[in-house]
Amino acid sequence: MLKALKTAASGMDAQQRKLDITANNLANVNTTGFKKSRAEFQEMLYTQQRSAGKGNPTGVEIGSGVANSGTQKSFVQGTLEATENPLDVAIEGEGFFRITTSDGDPAFTRAGAFKVDQSGALVTGDGQMVDPGIMIPMEAVSINITRDGTVNVVMDGDTAETEVGRLELTRFQNPAGLRSMGRGLFEPTEASGVPTSGTPGEDGLGAISQGFLEGSNVAVTEEMISMIVSQRAYEVNSKVIKTADSMLASATNIR
Amino acid sequence: MSDGIYTAVSGAIARQVHLDTVSHNLANVETPGYRARSVRFEELLVDRATGMSQVQVKNDDIDLSPGISEGTENPFDVAIEGDGFFTVDTGAGVGLTRAGRFRADDQGNLVTLEGYKVLNPNGQPVMVPPNSDFYVDDTGNVWDDIGIVDQLNLVSLTEGSTLTPMGPSTFKLAKGGTEASSATVRQGFIERANVNPVESMTELITLQRHFDAMQKLIQTFSTIDSRAARDLGSITG
After folding, report:
1. Cα–Cα distance, B218 to A105 (Å, whole number)
2. Chain A residue closest to B219 (CA)?
3. In a mutagenesis test of the A interface, which of B28, B132, B192, B206 is the best target, namely the one with the most A β-carbons within 10 Å?
4. Span A138-183, pLDDT tens digits
5. Nearest-angstrom CA–CA distance, B152 and B137
6. Which of A18, A43, A45 is nearest residue B169 as measured by Cβ atoms?
7. What is the pTM of this model?
8. Which of A192, B116, B193, B231 is the one with CA 20 to 30 A from A80?
């Protein structure tokens, strides 16, 4: 009986964790560049009550419930929203922008809501420099970013465009293995593979769209259904606890 | 002392194992690729002379009926429609699984959630094409931008084969063999657990009431024994 209690408790625990993840997804339904997570479940190990052998083709093995084996980020493309802001860029396809954090380490993001800091460098909303660095001159009247990431400016008094730099994109063998640092940033881990950088639009990398921002890829209907399912699974496991408890009570009340 | 009490106890113990199994099924009602388990009871003859027998749990069965496929838009989720399993290298032998929650590991191998490498029909790990999108067609061929690069191995069980669990949602052959399967593969879908919660809830009720009945039997035997000891053995009465 005690095993059934622990098994059911593992079920309830897993559903609770799933609900926490759903709540985070829904809270970030409007966050630029947000990538939804989902909970991964896995059966827990079996104990052999009786081994398979002669006359007994499969034996008796009872499992120990379910474990939340991790969360997986979904890098499905979010919808592009037009903002008409020349410094807003969205990636259409795969790849990440590379930025340098205040510790000097590289971090990766899909959120392309860039700004220009006081020295003219292209930075993220949090003030972190885009890598490779791009400087926008003070006298620039307009900025044009092409699909392959080339950043051109028109200076005051000129008619022609001058190239000031190029945005690079980075891709990973296994983007789901990236570690979330929060604030839309990801850092590479052993599981994500080595980052390979390149020109947008080539080698499987996505293209740059100026004047757009990538919205969150959370689908509200999906999350609502997930909530309903979590709740019912939670209830069903609590029924098992009630049954096990009642059986234990019955056994202790024999005498 | 009556021996019948042991029969009642064996019934109670069997139902306890049954509860553990139902509990494991319900805890995994949301685990992709999970196959429901059920236990089978059998009479165990303990005394040939009187025909006295007990109940034992003979073995547990794995329900291989397919679960519902759910669309996820994740290109690394693959579901099998029809009879079949993927083959994976668990590190301790080849395993069979339907849980198609794949990802690429850091060396570019296609692996399951547990890190088991997915195998092609030659028994080698399938590699994820490095610079293009991962695409699987409905016969299990893996494509890159140019053409077919590999194939996911799909096998089904031959007649009379049985499976035993080897790892989370992964099985190995206990008896029998496998042959190539003609099931279709759907990318962007994941197969859910084939647990039927309504059936499991009904099982919970049945097993609880049966367990209670066993407790009543044990109580009755205990009362009979105590009456026998007290009244029959009484000197004055």
Report:
1. 70
2. A254
3. B28
4. 888 889 999 988 999 988 888 888 888 899 999 887 787 888 888 8
5. 10
6. A43
7. 0.81
8. A192
